[in-house]
Amino acid sequence: MGEDRLRLSLEESHHLLHVFRAKEGTPFEATDGRGGFFGCVLEAVERRAAVGRIVERRPGSGELPRPMELVVGLPEWRAAEQIVEHAVPLGATSIDFVVCERSGRDALGPQRIARLMRVARAALKQSRRSRLPELTSSERLTKAIGDLRPGDRYLADPDGNPLTPGAAKQGQAPIQPAVGPPGGFSQEERRFFLDREFIPISMGPSRLTTETACLALLSLVRNPL
Amino acid sequence: MGEDRLRLSLEESHHLLHVFRAKEGTPFEATDGRGGFFGCVLEAVERRAAVGRIVERRPGSGELPRPMELVVGLPEWRAAEQIVEHAVPLGATSIDFVVCERSGRDALGPQRIARLMRVARAALKQSRRSRLPELTSSERLTKAIGDLRPGDRYLADPDGNPLTPGAAKQGQAPIQPAVGPPGGFSQEERRFFLDREFIPISMGPSRLTTETACLALLSLVRNPL
After folding, report:
1. Cα–Cα dist B72/B95, whole Å
2. Distance of residue B79 Cα from the nearest chain A Cα, in angstroms
3. Residue B206, SS3?
4. Tell me: domain B69-222, CATH 2.170.130.10, correct?
5. Domain ranges, ordered by start, for chain A
6. Which of A126, A219, A220, A221 to mutate to test the interface with B (most CBs of B within 10 A)?
7. Does domain A5-57 have CATH number 2.40.240.20?
8. Residue A158 is inside which H or E element, if any?
9. What is the pLDDT of residues A75-113, one digit of tens each?
10. Residues from B in contact with A at Cβ < 8 Å
11. What number of CA atoms fall less than 13 Å from residue A32's CA on the CB side?
12. Which of A64, A11, A12 is nearest to A40 (CA)?
């Protein structure tokens, strides 16, 4: 494609042409998932692929100014799907479903990750973000946390305090929220987080599921951005 | 029942006896949904109903210090279910699914409300709250807002600012977050909210679904409580 044209995937073309019923001249939006976001006009259909003329570029559309790297204790499948469905619109740039002591299941395999990526792509489009998040499922918490780059770290924790305004440092460092699996992190795991500068944040007087806690913590830490 | 005994409903009894497999002497927790929260020990089974001896009372368990009254533009059914599933653990004391200009559907009837109440009861139990929220579906936005008692009012709004700390007044007044239906509130509806002292709050650079926006706004406004 030339620099002012783009070609949609067959799946996206099908949606645009047959669900959304676009005709030649219909405006639509597209993203490459790497920060490119394009206002387009449908120009042609070539072998069932929609070709658009780019009329506007909005790089980084819908993205927060800082990365948000969510670490979550691996829950059951439906909860994992819900986390991706809501965390992507809320701006997560990566989600690691980490096997914890109380996860009681193996890390997600490639097929499961591929299914979650489909959920993420749909959520990206719906929320008009432009960078597809990275989804992983680490086997070991110590390695997952050890591999994180420096950042502002928050742990959803029954013994924490409410998030205080101004707790987040300025700058471009990633924000790294962490939420336990169903049943919570073990005492040893919790200690591990606190030793690595995760600030314990209370999620209130009620008991939240892993998925609700993820969304609540993401909502809090992204607010000042 | 005497003052130190309680009898579970048949549905709850079935869960306790056959799913959780409680035996005589097994401890369990129960709430009356009106602020009563009881630590119990299973004492007997009478006509398939579990009877517990109350060993501890924790009135108001899991409840925030202030009511949270959510007003949300009526979305499609699955979104409504998800809102109840997450908003109850987050502390909503009432949820009104209000028909708006862009809702494109009628108010929820009694059967739908009853189904949502079942979701709410399960969420109440799971989150260890003790007051069952009120669920309604108003036909008209102007009446729904007009009927609200005085409170701290917040509107999820693309043209708002991030929630600033200290925006919430002190006191016991309810907190009243409002979120639009899919497609958002109309300009006229938005004006109506602003005229009634709703503070517009930005939910960030991405576009959130009605359900994600509800959870994000609830998470923000409950944090200082």
Report:
1. 7
2. 12
3. coil
4. no
5. 5-57, 69-222
6. A219
7. yes
8. strand A152-161
9. 999 999 999 999 999 999 999 999 999 999 999 999 999
10. 61-64, 82, 86, 89-91, 126-129, 162-166, 204-209, 211-212, 215-220, 222-225
11. 12
12. A12
Q: Is the pLDDT of residue A2 over 80?
A: no
Residue with tokens 């005497």: B2
- Which one, of B179, B186, B190, lies nearest residue B215 by Cα? B179
Q: What is the pLDDT of residue A90?
A: 97
CA distance B124 to A216: 17
Are A52 and A28 in contact, with CB atoms under 8 Å apart? yes
Q: What's the token pair of residue B171?
A: 């006191």
For B220, the closest of A212, A219, A225 (CB atoms) is: A219
Which has the closest alpha carbon to B213: B93, B99, B87? B87
Count other Cβ atoms within 10 Å, centred on residue A39: 16
Give the pair of three-digit tokens for residue B24: 């005589």
Residue partners of A188: CB distance under 8 A and separation at least 6: A101
Nearest chain A Cα distance for residue B58, angstroms: 12
Residues A144, B4: Cα–Cα separation, whole Å: 49
